[in-house]
Structures are given as C-alpha cells and as structure tokens.
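User: Could you go from structure to sequence for me? I need the amino acid at each position, not a summary. Structure tokens:
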C-alpha cells in the first residue's frame, strides 16, 4: 500500500525550497526560527518546528501537495463531498449507506486558517479532511475498507478561522511518514460541489507523538515497524521541507491526542507545488502513479 520513493536526508548547509521562501518573506519572522533541521529529523519533528507551525500569528503559506490516489473528492474515483452527511465534526464513523466505526487512539484535530490574501482569519472557509485508519487503510478504496467512508468529513471555519474534527490517530504505512490530508475551499457550497479546492496539502505528525500512540495500542503494531523505515527527510512528500506542515500534538493515548496546526492559505494561483509527490496521471487523476513507481499518499 505504501510508497517506497525514499529520498536522501537534507544537507544541513542547504535550505529547502520552503525554508528559502520563508526567508524571502512568504513566511512570518517567527516561523523562520524553525527553518534549520537538526541532525535527527525525528527530534526536530517534536520540538520547535511544531510550536512555530501551530502558533505563528502570520504563518507561512502551506505548500500545495499531492492529494494521493485516495482523495474521495471525485478527482480519482468516488466523491464523498457530494454525499449528504459529509459535513460533520466527528469523522470516526461511516455515514449514509455505510456503517462502521474506525478503531484507534482518539484524536482531536484543530486547524486554524489564515487567509493570506486578506491577511485575516479564514472565516467561512471549508476544510475537507481525510486520512488512513489504524490499519493504514483508506475508506472507499483499500481492501477491507471499501464499504466504509469513515475518516472523511467537512467543517466550516468559525469567526476565528478555526475548524475541529474528532477522529482517531492515523497509522504509519510502508514508505510514508504519518500524515493527514486536507483540502481548503473558499466556501461550504464550493466544497460540497466537490470541485475547485483552493489548497490541497498534508499535515505531518511529530515522531514522539506517533511513537507513544503506536506503543500504546496493539492495533498499530505494523506502524511501529513501518515507521522505522522512514524519516521526515526521506518521506516523498515532506522530504523537501515540513516547517509549514508539522503539527503540534499534546495529550496521551489514554486521554486522547490533540493535534493542532495553523494553516496559511494563499491565493489558489500562488500555491507552490511541492517538489516531491506525483504528477497527474494519464487520466487526469491527481496523485496518480508516476512512471516507475507508486504514488505518494
């Protein structure tokens, strides 16, 4: 299921494209402090970068990333966005004609949207979130979860530009760092039409939080093994920089994990495509398999 395009680690003397954009003014001054990687990607993933990404008042523009092969937004197969019931805060259960509940360590996801065009809170923006389950499966697509549509849902940002979802902590599957997918739309009406996302990106989860979850719940057994084979630097989505995508995580597996990230949303025409990830496939589906290798997810 996973991807195996694992790149080399960062040269500490060379700034990634995203970090360079920070220093050129796309990012806020506060976020620039998180730009230098340490010799241990995983330690870096759980410290200052996480705090900067989640708390910067004027965040860097979130990079455009691949939606992967399992978006469920109509661009590659099923379109959950046009289904009644997709607008919900609790995404742990399936809805509509499907039934079932994703098992795993409870997680609350909070995204604080900042409209960089207006330099204001992203009030009224709609966010579509999706991620894999405890077994690393994507609902609607993966064997064992094709008759489920859990771990997918839409929320509208409040006056502060905030959306919140209740979910379970995602797994780590082979070849990818643990992550969450999301799309930002200018309005709910645009989102539920299943078309014209302003931003498609991903959220990276800190190593220490992942380790605590995977060690605590035996349902994540495969995640422990899979995570030993990937780092943020070698990941085929986050490998060119992750400062604007690394969440802050608090809590415990017993009480539940709280994931938070501040997302800078640029104009659609100004979104910067990641240097990693898959190009559109021959049939126009974003994140389709590139020649010679599987697509990032």
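Assistant: Here is the amino acid at each position, in order:
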């Amino acid at each position: 299921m996973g991807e195996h395009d694992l790149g080399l680690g960062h040269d500490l003397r060379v700034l990634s494209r995203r970090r360079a954009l920070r220093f050129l003014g796309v990012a806020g001054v506060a976020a620039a402090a998180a730009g230098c990687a340490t010799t241990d990607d995983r330690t870096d993933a759980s410290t200052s970068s996480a705090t900067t990404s989640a708390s910067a008042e004027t965040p860097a523009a979130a990079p455009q990333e691949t939606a992967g092969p399992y978006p469920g937004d109509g661009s590659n197969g099923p379109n959950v966005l046009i289904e009644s019931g997709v607008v919900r805060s609790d995404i742990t259960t399936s809805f509509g004609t499907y039934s079932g509940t994703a098992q795993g360590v409870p997680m609350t996801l909070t995204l604080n949207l900042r409209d960089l065009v207006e330099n204001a809170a992203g009030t009224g923006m709609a966010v579509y979130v999706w991620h894999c389950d405890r077994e690393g499966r994507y609902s609607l697509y993966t064997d064992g979860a094709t008759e489920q549509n859990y771990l997918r849902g839409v929320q509208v940002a409040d006056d502060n530009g905030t959306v919140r979802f209740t979910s379970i902590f995602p797994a780590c599957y082979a070849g990818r760092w643990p992550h969450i997918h999301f799309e930002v739309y200018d309005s709910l009406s645009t989102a539920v039409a299943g078309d014209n996302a302003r931003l498609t990106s991903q959220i990276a989860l800190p190593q220490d939080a992942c380790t605590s979850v995977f060690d605590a719940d035996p349902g994540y057994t495969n995640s422990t093994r899979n995570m030993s084979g990937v780092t943020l630097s070698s990941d085929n989505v986050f490998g060119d920089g992750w400062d604007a995508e690394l969440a802050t995580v608090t809590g415990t597996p017993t009480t539940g994990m709280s994931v938070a990230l501040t997302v800078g949303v640029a104009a659609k025409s100004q979104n910067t495509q990641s240097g990693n990830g898959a190009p559109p496939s021959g049939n126009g589906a974003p994140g389709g398999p590139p020649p010679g290798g599987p697509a990032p997810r």
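One structural detail worth keeping in mind: Confidence is low (pLDDT under 50) at residues 1-56, 277-296.
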